[in-house]
Amino acid sequence: MKKIFICTFLIAAGAVSLLDQNNKIEVQSPEFGFKNYYAITLGYDKSMGEKTIKAAVIDSYFREVAANGKIIRWNRASFPLKVYIEDNTEVPAYYREVVMRAYQSWERASDGLVRFTFVEAPEDAEMKCYFKNTDDASSSIGTQAFSVNGNTLLDSTIIFKKTDNKNNNHDSKQLYSSALQEIGRSLGLNGKSPSIYDVMYPIGIKFNTEITARDLKTLALVYSVVPDVTNIPPTEEEKAQLFTVQEILATLNVPVNEETQNLDEVTANDIATKLALAEEYRKRAEYDKAAQEYQAVAQMKTDLRSKSEVYYEVAVMYLDAEEFKKAKSCAEIALATDTNDKTIILPALIDYYMKRSNSAIEQLDIILQQNPYNKHAYKLLCQIYREKHHENLLNATIKKYGPTAGDVED
Predict the structure, then answer these.
(1) From CA 332, how far away is CA 326, in angstroms rounded?
(2) Is 25's pLDDT higher than 50?
């Protein structure tokens, strides 16, 4: 299944029922979008209202983290954590620099919620990174593991393979994406995001190099609950300011992570509940039911741009499911609703998913010639060139459009 990162753009995930295209299109306003990734609350406590927590949970993947077992995280009083990154002469010098930059990116993006300092000896570190090949035949670049004694977190170790399965050095962007994800795990994000844009989405063949607001909200929520395993147990006074996992999830109007729950019996009358319901249907691969709930969300909104983003997202949902006819129908609605930098790339994106890369490249070239500031077209084009190993074309594209459309790495 072909999947890809396009951009780091947070929306209330949305869709339209593609089984009934005669439904009247109504306009909408964004509910959970952010123009600034980091203009969010990087910490939640019991002084905040239930609506604030509920909105954060909906626009995060905290539920996936909570469903994946115990909450394992560091005591916030422990930051900055000491990090050791092996200086291995058997790998390119940029390996160490890339991993260090990934740590710095988490610190910068979280506005200091998590902080690090680098040390020269592994025995001095809580977080340790090594470069060595293993017997693991998977395509994963990195693996992460905690060292735990009972309920006490001792340290975290990340191992990055020195080379890929063909004995080639890792591309810096691939290594950076892997480092962001493994560092996320070492911070306590032990669940997989269902959104293709987030750092904690399973890497597969695509590489996310931008920490999203969903990543940050999930991190903030993890550090706002009482941990099951941590390096320094919270005091009773600290616990009084922290939530339990159950208290966080209780803010939702729809049960989550219960495979036996009959979602058809759930009554959803507001955007938040409909989104939670739609996401649960999507997770269970009941895409048409998810689309119906997303359509209801779209009908509650009030501007065309937000409406089109809902249809864009459901098109991507159907592309991930390889239901191309429905994806095309939803893409047409998105474009008809509002033609913007995001929706205009949908035909090229569909060609990409359907393995018609040459057609996708032609369309993206035209889009960028007309608008060199379109970061979505730029990133998709770079992704295609990277996957096809067209390094010359990739570098030429970065040189030509990077100054206007942005950095593909950060």
Answers:
(1) 10
(2) no
Q: ∠ CA(192), CA(198), CA(202), 5° rounding? A: 40
pTM for the structure as a whole: 0.58
Q: Residue holding tokens 């509920």?
A: 54
76-105 per-position pLDDT tens digit: 999 999 999 999 999 999 999 999 999 999
Judge whether 190 and 74 are in contact, CB under 8 Å: no
Give residue for tokens 């609506």.
51
- CATH of residue 89's domain is 3.40.390.10
Whole-Å CA distances, 33 to 11, 109, 150, 166, 251: 5, 17, 40, 41, 20
pLDDT of res. 129 = 98
Exposed e or buried b per residue across 121-159, where buried means at least 16 C-beta atoms within 10 angstroms of its C-beta: ebeebbbbbebeeeeeeeebbbbbeeebeeeebebbbbb
Q: Which domain holds residue 159?
A: 76-241
8 Å CB contact between 78 and 223: no
Domains in the chain: how many in total? 1
Kindly state the tokens that stand for 278.
């739609």
